Amino acid sequence: MKFRAKINDVGCLNHFTRVVNTITKLTKTCVVRLTVDNIFFVLSGKVANGGVSMWCELLQVNFFDEYQLEGVSEDANEICLEVNPENLSRALKTAQNAKSVKIKLTKKHYPCLTLAAELPSLSSISRVVTHDIPVDVIPRRLWHDFKEPSMPDFDVSIYLPPLKTMKSVVDRMKNLSNYLVVEANLSGEMNLKIETDLVSVTTHFKDLGNPPWGASQSQSQSRDVEAMAHARVDIRKLQQFLMGQQVNPTKSMCNIVDKRIIHLILLQEDVSLQYFIPAVA
Amino acid sequence: MDCVATGGNVKVLAKAIHSLSRIGEELYLEPTEDGLTLRAVNSSRSAFACFLMTPLFFQRYQAPPDQALRCKMPIKSVQTVFRSLSSLERSVEKCRIEMNTEQSRLRITLHCKHGLLKTHNLSFQDCESLQAVFDKDSCTNMLRAQPRLWVDTVLHFPPSLEEVSVSVSSDRVWLRNHVEDDADSSKAMMTELCLSSEEFDHFAIGSQTSITFCLKELRGLLVFAETAGLPISMYFDEPGSPVVLSVSDSVLEANFVLATLSEDAHQRNHNNNKADGPRAGLPPDDFMCDDIDSYLIAMETSDLAGPSYEPQPQSSSTNHKSRLLSEEEDEEEESVERPPNKKFCSLFFGSVLPASSQLTNQTVQSQEVLASDSEDERQSD
């Protein structure tokens, strides 16, 4: 098992840092899956983390100038590590103006992702800072937990309003209730609402547009365009998602499986982030 | 005592107070012919800080005729006077400090713009002199660098980190976070920063060594040095003997004396962390000349046992210089907050005697009286 990657470009470094920061806001630990072409940050929906799951996919070639990987075996040419993204984020933060950053898998007293940054200095010799981030290597028999989640057979898919707007709405609603109902239909309308004994608040969004998913989603094709699909979710999970995101997506959308789950997708040229929040009764 | 500081020096004074507040709970004030000294010591007496503002620092400086005037007060109350640095800078024109011994009041008057006067009367207690004895000139190692370098260095370590290890070789300095043996070190991120000697204004290493001390006080001094724009000098010997951080210019001097972990503790740490210690034998810069295979590792996913890291059992505090107090100090023991039961308790105060036979490899020097701190609380009651 070998892994080594290097970033020379400060733009790529900042971009990678933003992705990691976003992940950090979403979860305390996650699994980093390294393959020849991609890096994945994965959180599988365990009860312990409230059933939330996450799947973030990066195209390595868009971030790294050098990238060498030798997986567990030839037929499974990949590496799965459990890592605390906060550590990674902190290490990257101290490497912000680095001339180059190397990330490699090392074995110290325990397996580590070692991040070494070459920093500008006052002299001709660079400063070098290295961070040994402890990781757990995930044995192959557990890999099945960290496969890409399949797209749920959703009832409604809709583009999200600007995330900042959504965030300010959700932030305010959080003061009133612990649960929020997300509902949307196929004519570009989405509502965020809370209902408590004392107050009901709904924010309506219009003309958001519905992404064309093709004929594969037959269920949504035959659906009444005005009918709302809805899911009641833990407002903190949604807030966490809106608060942490730093990737400035070119597209953001939400799929709703009625009363089951909401599936949030952020798309950028070379990054995609999917976040699943289960509905509660 | 009656002294007046003006302009930028008010801010310097304020920063000095803020720095001292990171060390201890009480401010020890002693006006002498040589200037006004401000001192603080932490509760475990493993850190001591002293600022000397010479008479030239002040626009007017009048030492008390009675030389024995020494007092202490809660540093929080003094900090309150200088709380907002930005408003100090904007509006305060001068600051007058007077001591009224009859009323046991220290009066600090801030003369602000538009003729506004802010007067603070602080009560104080008489006390004996507080002074750590150290001789930084006899230290074998000395590093001096601009505050910027120290700030940039400290930035790489998390704010929660308590202790940092500094290792030196003839041309390099390594800093790394020190993780206690009993901490869950398998979960801690280890950070190491390597600096070239060229980055230092002055780099004199007599012996390759590695010392571990608290980062908090260094951060405290940085608060001061950065505003004052003064380089920080670091004087140190072997592990276990204090490190002195010092800044000075023509009108003021500050010395921070900090305990370092003693040798045996260090040794254990070295054994546990192979990466530790000055690595003179290694290629000068392994980051630059790395060849992929030298770094990559072979790990079996199925068998993760490997040579696992097991922290050695925590040895008793006798491995370290124990907290030893002079007799006078013992008298006030009841009134002093017990120091945290931490292994990090090298001392500069009181007569330091070897606590047990385990301290055999300590220098004779440590048996001398390093300092006398003979305050008498009863007097002030």
Automatic annotation (TrEMBL), chain A:
The UniProt record lists the keyword Plastid: no
Cellular component GO terms held in the UniProt record: checkpoint clamp complex; cytosol; nucleolus; site of double-strand break
Keyword Cytoplasm: yes
Keywords attached to this entry: Cytoplasm, DNA damage, Nucleus
A Pfam family it matches: Hus1
Main location: cytoplasm
Biological process annotations from GO: double-strand break repair via homologous recombination; meiotic DNA integrity checkpoint signaling; mitotic DNA replication checkpoint signaling; mitotic intra-S DNA damage checkpoint signaling; nucleotide-excision repair; response to radiation; telomere maintenance
InterPro entries noted in UniProt: DNA_clamp_sf, HUS1, HUS1/Mec3
Compartment annotation: Cytoplasm, Cytosol; Nucleus
Cited function: Component of the 9-1-1 cell-cycle checkpoint response complex that plays a major role in DNA repair. The 9-1-1 complex is recruited to DNA lesion upon damage by the RAD17-replication factor C (RFC) clamp loader complex. Acts then as a sliding clamp platform on DNA for several proteins involved in long-patch base excision repair (LP-BER).
Subunit relationships: Component of the toroidal 9-1-1 (RAD9-RAD1-HUS1) complex, composed of RAD9A, RAD1 and HUS1. The 9-1-1 complex associates with LIG1, POLB, FEN1, RAD17, HDAC1, RPA1 and RPA2. The 9-1-1 complex associates with the RAD17-RFC complex. HUS1 interacts with POLB, HDAC1, FEN1, PCNA and RAD9B. HUS1 does not interact with RAD17. Interacts with DNAJC7.
Family label: Belongs to the HUS1 family.
Listed name of the protein: Checkpoint protein
Record organism: Pangasianodon hypophthalmus (Striped catfish)
The organism's taxonomic lineage, starting at the top: Eukaryota, Metazoa, Chordata, Craniata, Vertebrata
UniProtKB/TrEMBL annotation, chain B:
Species in which this protein is naturally found: Pangasianodon gigas (Mekong giant catfish)
Domain of life: Eukaryota
Entry protein name: Uncharacterized protein
